[in-house]
Amino acid sequence: MSTAAPALLTLVLPDGATREVAPGTLAREVVGTIGQRLLRDAIAVSVDGEVQDLMTPIRVGGAFTVITQKDPRALAVLRHSGAHILATAVRRLRPDAKIGFGPAIDDGFYYDFEVATPFTPEDLEAFDAEMRKVAAEAFPFVREEIDQVAGRARFADDPLKLERLAELGADEVISTYTDGPFVDLCRGPHVPDTSYLKHFKLLHTAGAYWRGDERRQMLQRIYATAFWKAEDLEAHLHRIEEAKRRDHRVVGKALDLFMFHPFAPGAAFWTERGTTMVNALNDYLRELQRDGYAEIKTPLLYNKGLWETSGHWGKYRENMFLVLDAETKEHDFSLKPMNCPSHYLMYLNKKHSYRELPLRYNTYDVLHRNEVSGALSGLTRVRQFQQDDCHIFLMESQIADEVKALTRFILSYYETFGLTARLKFATRPEQRVGDDAMWDRAEGALRAALEATGYAYELKPGDGAFYGPKIDFDVTDSIGRAWQLGTIQLDYAAPERFDLQYVGDDNHTHRPVVIHRAVSGSFERFMAILIEHFAGAFPVWLAPEQLRILPLSDDLAEVAQAVTKRFRDAGVRAHLDQAESLNYRIRQAEVAKVPYMAVIGKREAESAQLAIRVRGAGKKQEIVSVEAFLERITQEIATRALTPAGGES
RNA sequence: GCCACAGUAGCUCAGGGGUAGAGCACUCGAUUCGUAAUCGAGCGGUCGUCGGUUCAAUUCCGACCUGUGGCUCCA
């Protein structure tokens, strides 16, 4: 802050009006000049695009907007304050707790504490109750700007805060926020006082490394969420419940799709029903890749020589399952964690002409990656998985067309399931191979190809693979969660390492480029997403059981058996169920989420008809002839129709 | 791998220092049924594993295994 009389700052309000204020004027004062009612409703302000709270001095001019509860940015302010209120409560009940960081996050907020004994669920209840007291006390959030010396004195008992303080540069404003008994080193912004926090819930505790560094101490993190309105909080908790209901581990067990066993941690056992689905996916991909792709199979186990050539032995060994060689007594072999090196060996096996390019090797081989035990989770994170992998060898001049075709391919595959994807374009990372000219060419080609598709994409600078830029496909499921599935990666490094070549039309040898491509990532993860996306109510073509045939009484067994055979002969996965009452069997079929039920009573038996009940459609039934329904269901299967979609129970 | 929590019948879960219970599933019998659970009977568990404390452990303690939520990592 300079001592000379500073020039006034000009703030431009949304309606075009302006305010001339002296630097250091508090935002609150400016809002007060607009209206007292607005001041009451104000949570924070936006100055020149930056959110700051009402207690913060204005230092720059520019567009000035008042942020009220209606503004989505206000929620992050509330949640950040919620984190402070949580810390206030924790400090009151556990004065020994050292404070770490407490930011707002996507769905709420958290605060990290360093404590001698970890928090228990009972502690959480006590903190919740204490937070309500702190909120009721309506402590104002008081902002102070201090210097390093004062900061070190104030946080003398909080080593984590001192560490953060020491990192702040001389030109940075050091600010603290105080609410009642609690002071925190914090940039803000905050709501005016603690009473703004009304609708919140502490969710769970978790360990978290200080600064996210596994070499540092483990702190105790408390996760929580907060909203402006009770109904928003309710809705959020309901969404959590809904996600739990759709959890693929729950649904997979209920629908008997897969299992795990302690003897094979991180590796799925697929039941007959689950295998049927995986095979349906596999068949579909094979059909899509019938032309222009060369499906190959390569070994699962390799001598370390391959991994030394590929670089995995140095960079990836931690994640590889090493196998003891009986003769050498050394871990000279490893299960493959990726397909690419073996595909390069296949490519090297013969000489290639430019006429063969692009050459696409695709495979469904099984891969093994030795994930740390704590990382495993259902089907989404496993140690053994099947990837729909493809490596494309091509000339640089072919990159644009190829990427365009691959992007279309991947997106249209997702569309079959009603899944939409967001594209992310990731550029050169800090750690990389190849010169800038190569990266310019690669990024230029990939980006041009991406733009040619016409799809919108986000930029992720510096997030590319070390060997080349990539396009990632983030799929959003029916309840709005994003999963990274497909990827298209340009690789200029592998062709060098493996000395890949082709003979050009000039009769000289050239270096091809490699594209790594995955569509569903892994069958395991993709199945998890599909299970949760459809909540187990799969499209007919994918459903492990497509039609359940329910004769009304035993004397119709013969007719029902003949009808079942008719459908099975036509390739429909039909099953006959003659047990128990009709009501009971209908309930069983609904619970099993079988898309179609065909009831055969005396009337239907006499007229070669079926009383069709569609999953989730309730009592509404259609009487159709056996042949007409056979035509309809085989059409739906052949076209991979999404219907009968929905049908929640 | 690290922190916390959990593991009781096929599933969902109750219980608790004196070796266990419900519903569903399963089996059998009766019922032959018109759109989400017919009735009855029966079977089923060395309470995750190993060790310790105790007269006695499924219960208390410890280690390990597996899972869950996170951290880290990632398809």
CATH topology of the largest domain: BirA Bifunctional Protein, domain 2
Count of beta strands = 35
CA-atom Rg in angstroms: 31 Å
CATH class call of the largest domain = Alpha Beta
Our measurement of the CA-to-CA distance between the termini, rounded to an integer number of angstroms, reads 64 Å
- Overall mean pLDDT stands at 91
User: Largest sheet, if any?
Assistant: 8 strands, mixed
- The order of strands across the largest sheet is 16-20-23-30-27-26-24-25
Work out the helix count.
Answer: 20
This entry's quaternary arrangement is: single chain
- Structural class of the secondary structure composition? alpha+beta
Report the β-strand fraction as a percent range.
25-35%
Number of domains: 4
Low-confidence stretches: 645-649
Proportion in helices: 25-40%
CATH superfamily of the largest domain: Bira Bifunctional Protein, Domain 2
Query: Would you identify the CATH architecture of the largest domain?
Result: 2-Layer Sandwich
Sum up the overall morphology in one term.
globular
Q: Care to describe what's here?
A:
The strands form nine sheets. This protein has an eight-stranded mixed sheet with strand order 16-20-23-30-27-26-24-25. The chain has a five-stranded mixed sheet with strand order 2-1-5-3-4, sandwiched between helices. The chain has 649 residues and is α+β, with helices and mostly antiparallel strands. The longest helix is centred in the first third of the chain and has 22 residues, at 72-93. The chain has 20 helices and 35 strands. The radius of gyration is 31 Å and the shape is globular. It is 35% helix and 25% strand. It has four domains: 9-68, Beta-grasp domain (Ubiquitin-like (UB roll), Roll), CATH 3.10.20.30; 73-244, Threonyl-trna Synthetase, Chain A, domain 2 (Threonyl-tRNA Synthetase, Chain A, domain 2), CATH 3.30.980.10; 268-298 and 352-534, BirA Bifunctional Protein, domain 2, CATH 3.30.930.10; 547-638, Anticodon-binding domain (Rossmann fold, 3-Layer(aba) Sandwich), CATH 3.40.50.800.
